[in-house]
């Protein structure tokens, strides 16, 4: 007995997000349509429209779930090592898969599309900020990051600095760049006076 | 005797850039047209098309010249003080004048318009990078920044971090944020071990 029409909502939702994420990371966003997602996830377009008000919102939700594993924050107990490995994984994703272009195009469109900008922050960037801050907070708790530092600013000086090179590519995103970001920020760039 | 038709090219060029910059910083880019610039700078549209292949290129060139003074890099001899005052001026310009939206919209469009992306880098961002690095290099020469630091990465961790908040506004650009950027990067965020 097939119960396809009665699958639990959470299961249907997971199937949809998986289908969207797979398309985005393998092909980019050009071929992403409600039609195709409906077909690949065996779900009606009405359901899609009900849960996601726009293709941008659906794409962002699918993207977030698709990259969650790749962009997970390791915790080996050494914040320096963990930041470098997470940021290198992020750099790889953004420069070596269609996922990078998906995100920079969404950020680009969100400059003139306020609904998309809100969806971007709600479904993607604020979630990524939260996850980064959780890892940074543990480093602060064990005394690896000074207690007076605003962790949100660290997000801008690490991941934000990578986005800067992705969005305005005067300079490339390389492992050397990523290592430099972490070293500069943890150790400081000012000369140590006696 | 009027010599309007024979003004030296450099003078005409300066008039055009000034007209474009004034429009962008007071009104934004919505009303910027070749027609209007032609009228306000008393120059033929043919001349405009000859010097600037697109409105994006003309806007970027005008913008760069319009903000050059506001965004000048002071040199009091103290890099910490100078970075904070330049970055605060930059934050002001980007959040309190139409100039901020002009730039974020151009960056947004440049994600899908390769000609605009090239113009953006050539006429704006690479020039701003060069000016920032000149000031940072002097700080490095007088021993205020460690000699092994890649100055280009500092640009991403200061100005790039500001752009990150402008383009993806999960968090605001405030003076407190700017001061934090400079303190974090110069002094480092890692706890000092004995």
TrEMBL record, chains A, B:
DNA-binding region in chain numbering: 33-52
UniProt entry tagged with the keyword Transcription regulation: yes
Domain of life: Bacteria
Domain called HTH tetR-type: residue spans: 10-70
Pfam families per UniProt: TetR_C_11 (PF16859)
Keyword list, A-Z: DNA-binding, Transcription, Transcription regulation
SUPFAM superfamilies (UniProt xref): Homeodomain-like, Tetracyclin repressor-like, C-terminal domain
Name recorded for this polypeptide: Transcriptional regulator, TetR family
Native species: Rhodococcus rhodochrous J3
Lineage, opening ranks: Bacteria, Bacillati, Actinomycetota, Actinomycetes, Mycobacteriales
């Amino acid at each position: 007995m097939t119960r396809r029409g009665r699958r639990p909502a959470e299961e249907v939702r997971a199937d949809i997000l998986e289908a969207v994420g797979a398309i985005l990371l393998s092909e980019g966003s050009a071929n992403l349509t409600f039609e195709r997602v409906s077909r690949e996830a065996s779900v009606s377009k009405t359901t899609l429209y009900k849960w996601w008000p726009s293709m941008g919102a659906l794409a962002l939700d699918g993207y977030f779930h698709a990259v969650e594993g790749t962009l997970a924050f390791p915790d080996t107990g050494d914040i320096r090592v963990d930041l470098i490995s997470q940021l290198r994984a992020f750099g790889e994703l953004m420069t070596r898969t269609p996922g990078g272009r998906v995100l920079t195009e969404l950020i680009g469109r969100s400059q003139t599309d306020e609904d998309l900008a809100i969806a971007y922050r709600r479904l993607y960037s604020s979630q990524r900020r939260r996850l980064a801050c959780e890892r940074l907070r543990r480093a602060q708790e064990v005394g690896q990051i000074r207690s007076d530092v605003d962790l949100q600013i660290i997000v801008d000086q690490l991941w934000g600095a990578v986005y800067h090179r992705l969005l305005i590519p005067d300079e490339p995103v390389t492992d050397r760049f990523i290592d430099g970001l972490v070293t500069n920020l943890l150790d400081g760039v000012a000369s140590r006076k006696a």
